[in-house]
């Protein structure tokens, strides 16, 4: 019995490319499809989590929203990896800087993803799993950033289950461990990729800084988003 379409993705097998770019916002997925891809088809509207497949400079690429948080990207990335034969998922999102050396407009290439989530408990491992990106994607992203003169910082990020935390000391503790930025999805993506034997990377545009209080305007966010998209589309394979 086929497991597709799933309860969350209405695509048929073959409608999703081997590489999927995943912004959190489904409307951002629509924007990417309309402005960066050619010959686009829409493969998903279920729950308004829009998904599209098209081509970028001759390469077949898909883009689909992931929703907010670890549970949401956990569902979508699992189904893409395990049911739709996707090999690579590149999360493209925004993040808040937690490091004085990571400035607004920077692109963070998330080598690892620490988390306060209990997502790894499902694997019943005899220890603590360290969610990390796929080296080939990290290496390729670094090279594109250098080629395009895009300021990119590589390191560990925090995938937080809480946007509004009752623990007012939590951020300073993570900052003391050298965490570069906070977001809400990468750790689940990396764990799903590891379990499925697939590839994953999280690219993040720094939109604001917990350290300085600085925040980008809507216009500046769009400009920096284009830098991140240049990296993501170039490394799609």
From TrEMBL:
<comment type="function">
    <text>Catalyzes the reversible phosphorolytic breakdown of the N-glycosidic bond in the beta-(deoxy)ribonucleoside molecules, with the formation of the corresponding free purine bases and pentose-1-phosphate.</text>
</comment>
<dbReference type="InterPro" id="IPR035994">
    <property type="entry name" value="Nucleoside_phosphorylase_sf"/>
</dbReference>
<feature type="binding site" description="in other chain">
    <location>
        <position position="28"/>
    </location>
    <ligand>
        <name>phosphate</name>
    </ligand>
</feature>
<dbReference type="InterPro" id="IPR004402">
    <property type="entry name" value="DeoD-type"/>
</dbReference>
<feature type="site" description="Important for catalytic activity">
    <location>
        <position position="221"/>
    </location>
</feature>
<feature type="binding site" description="in other chain">
    <location>
        <position position="24"/>
    </location>
    <ligand>
        <name>phosphate</name>
    </ligand>
</feature>
<feature type="binding site" description="in other chain">
    <location>
        <begin position="91"/>
        <end position="94"/>
    </location>
    <ligand>
        <name>phosphate</name>
    </ligand>
</feature>
<dbReference type="GO" id="GO:0004731">
    <property type="term" value="F:purine-nucleoside phosphorylase activity"/>
</dbReference>
<dbReference type="InterPro" id="IPR018016">
    <property type="entry name" value="Nucleoside_phosphorylase_CS"/>
</dbReference>
<dbReference type="InterPro" id="IPR000845">
    <property type="entry name" value="Nucleoside_phosphorylase_d"/>
</dbReference>
<comment type="similarity">
    <text>Belongs to the PNP/UDP phosphorylase family.</text>
</comment>
<feature type="binding site" description="in other chain">
    <location>
        <begin position="207"/>
        <end position="208"/>
    </location>
    <ligand>
        <name>a purine D-ribonucleoside</name>
    </ligand>
</feature>
<keyword id="KW-0808">Transferase</keyword>
<keyword id="KW-0328">Glycosyltransferase</keyword>
<feature type="binding site">
    <location>
        <position position="47"/>
    </location>
    <ligand>
        <name>phosphate</name>
    </ligand>
</feature>
<dbReference type="GO" id="GO:0005829">
    <property type="term" value="C:cytosol"/>
</dbReference>
<protein>
    <recommendedName>
        <fullName>Purine nucleoside phosphorylase DeoD-type</fullName>
        <ecNumber>2.4.2.1</ecNumber>
    </recommendedName>
</protein>
<dbReference type="GO" id="GO:0042278">
    <property type="term" value="P:purine nucleoside metabolic process"/>
</dbReference>
<dbReference type="GO" id="GO:0004850">
    <property type="term" value="F:uridine phosphorylase activity"/>
</dbReference>
<comment type="subunit">
    <text>Homohexamer; trimer of homodimers.</text>
</comment>
<feature type="domain" description="Nucleoside phosphorylase">
    <location>
        <begin position="19"/>
        <end position="232"/>
    </location>
</feature>
<feature type="binding site" description="in other chain">
    <location>
        <begin position="183"/>
        <end position="185"/>
    </location>
    <ligand>
        <name>a purine D-ribonucleoside</name>
    </ligand>
</feature>
<feature type="active site" description="Proton donor">
    <location>
        <position position="208"/>
    </location>
</feature>
<dbReference type="Pfam" id="PF01048">
    <property type="entry name" value="PNP_UDP_1"/>
</dbReference>
<dbReference type="GO" id="GO:0006218">
    <property type="term" value="P:uridine catabolic process"/>
</dbReference>
<feature type="binding site">
    <location>
        <position position="8"/>
    </location>
    <ligand>
        <name>a purine D-ribonucleoside</name>
    </ligand>
</feature>
